Amino acid sequence: MADIAVREAIRKFTNILGDLSLEEGIRFYRLDEQIEWIRKELDETKSFLIDADAKQEGDERVKNWVRDVRDFAYDTEDIIGTYFLKRISWWRRKKRLFGFLGRFACICCDSAATHEFVMQIEGLKRRSEDIKRSRDTYGIECNVTEAAAGEVAVSFQQRREYFSKYIEPDIVGFVEDIKVLKERLLDERIKYCVIPIVGMGGLGKTTLAKKVYNDVKPYFHCHAWVYISGKPRLPSYILEEIAKKIGLKKEEWEENVEKNLLSFLKERSYIIVLDDLWAIEVWEFLKEFFPDTMNGSRIIVTTRNHDVAKHVAQGSSPHELGFLSYNESWQLFSKKVFPDDGIGRFPPELEPLGRQILKRCGQLPLAIVVMGGLLSLKDKAEHVWLRVLQCMEGEANGECQMTLYLSYIDLPYYLKPCFLYFGLLPEDLEIPVSRLINLWMAEGFIQYQGQLRLEDVARGYLDELIYRNLIQVAKRSFGGRVKACTIHDVLHEFCISKAKEDDFFGIYRNLDSDANAKMRRLAIYCSVCSYISLNHYTSKLRALLCFQKDWESLEKDQRSKKELEKLEIEHLRFIYTGFTLLRVLNLEGVQFEDLPDEFGILIHLKYLGLRDTKFKSLPSTISNLKNLETLDIQSTNYYSVPSVIWLMTQLRHIILDFYAELRNPFIFGYRMDRHRAVDKVSLPNLQTLWMIQGSSLEPSCLCEMTSLRELKIHGQIMLHSKVLSTPKAISDQLENLQLEGRTQFPFPDVPVIPALMLSHYGNLRQLVLQGKLEKLPNHDEFPPNLTKLSLQSTNLLEDPMATLSRLLNLRNLVLGYWSYLGNKLVCSEGGFPKLEVFKLIYLDQLKEWRVDGGAFPQLRALKIKNCEQLDMLPDGLRSITTLTQLELNMPERFYSRFQRNGEDWDKIQHVHSIITWQYGKAKQI
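That's the Probable disease resistance RPP8-like protein 4 sequence above. Prediction below.
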């Protein structure tokens, strides 16, 4: 962590040299020379930190030296950041003042501040000399040379490519557990039941529950997975989470979630998982909203507490999870240590040591997979493994804790802060990878590696943490890329404990806080105002992350919502004026109407997250945030964003939603500029532009976004689509494009998306087209490497299969709502050579579908929904031996043909999983 602090201080010194060294006052004090001296000292110290990081766990003196370096770097950054703020404040005041006296006063203040800055720099120089002397005394060595730096970049690229291809192996063990649980869940004789899975932490309760949940959820009308945890959480918030996931509308879970949830579940069969339940009181509250209507509904509860399990079981036996058998433990361990082998074959010379190490893991799955991840990256040499075994025989608080500790110590220095950062985020959070990476970047955790983008380097970091089995994959894209991740609750607790030991971050829940004056990062899981009211000593914060989900966290105050809103706004103003050094500000769930103008004071801010805040507008002072890289606004109300964001050159990611309205600041009056477009853009670093209204952006401005990777435009997009189709690609790096056109009243038959020519976008993998197409592009006008295509409301009259079947890399195809208005589809021989997933949804006019032999040679999943006039499945399905999943939601007459021994049964009898839907109820054939 000291390495990050030093790198950020060096960056700040470099910036101040560039910004201030030309001024006469600075040259008078010869400040530029002193700043450069400190910068070089920090740069030199950084090269010693790798060696110190490796030595500090066994040497308390080295650990204290690393802490001194970190504090020195933090203090250096504080001094620079504060001085920057003062200079900018005086510069703005100087512009507003007239006359000799006003300007003279500003010059005096400026000179006094510069003199103070000089004195502080002198103090830093003395501390730097002390650190240097201690370094020599403790024998800390320099580990990085220029040649080594080049080798590190090459090595990282190789490791990144390797880790990115890693896919988690199948679950080991639990075979009998899975069988027993699925039988109980799908037994039609049981009309309602609650199944608790109980066992100590790390046994695999959540893994087991997730496996059976994913397998059986198609058989229920609705389903939800909710994480409870032992941390204080409002029961009403848990109900809201369930309501969202089972499909209640926004107004239903916002207004009266208890009544609407109960009413909704009474009419449907459901399966709900309550993961990590600790308290009987929480169950007693929640169970009132899980009605027993004798329709086969199920509830799964995972818990470490046997008393909770017995209480929840309602007289039946909880499913008690034990340790893995020795053979299962060895099989799991082998697969994790040698993941490339497939079957995990141990070299004979290492097997005895491997078995001794496994014995130390106590047949606990979590300990086994983490230790396996550690050994998988170690040299396969006896002396290396023997050293690991000797460490495990040292002092320990238990097998699992020692394993986690060793795995953390073994992490490269650049991965440690990235791993600990998971402890700062809520325990139950399924973290979108893009969001996590943006946070890491804003914190300064990511280092440039050769020509790689920082985002790609960060993905390499995450892939390595996954490979080490410290982080779990929650979602993957169709191409195998990790989309969301999560962390085991035991590892989450370890991160919090280690972070507290290192003063890395603090967490505030109600009146329980572990924050202190040295903290640079803080997460607030309750009311922001309650923290600020009690703790004014964390003014040096670099990151403030709020996860306030709703107003009920302040229920006990018995104030009206209006009073609470006023309270929040007052405390928001304090955030901007009291925490002026912030680089990360996430106000998720904090309810307020507007951001104050003081918001522009946060000139160091790199990440701004305003999800679910329901604010109405951003102030124009956002233009002062010259370092802002990520603007993440996904609210649930209409809000306006000033058009000055188009001129903020450092922005890399702009994430809006359907409700965003951009205003033009160059036109007077809100009503006049409401629908006007900006005709100038300066965003050379922009990589994500998500959910932007076409009317808010001049189409030609897309050509200025040369780094764009993800683009989603909705509304009036005809001209934007034409710009995308010009011979020169707007960005060679574009990977994901979504065009959602809106039909213009009163011209419903007029196309909203023109003829497209996208063949010059070689990196474009995902394409979504929604809205009436002028014409379907020819196969050679589509991106050549397209893997996923979704068409919705495109109103095609001609059969698109002749064209789409020639897209050689297409793996996922969705013909959605009213995409095709014809009555016949023909898939010719050899078509769709790589397609794996095919979905036909709401094709009202489709009557016949023909599949010739040799089509779909790799198809594994097929879904047909609400194609009301289609009477039968195509004969060609017989020859698609790769097909393993078939899901049908069709009229009853459609099903009669392929019941077992029916006239069409032979077409699909080879399919492993066939699920049919009728009246909202799933059934497996």
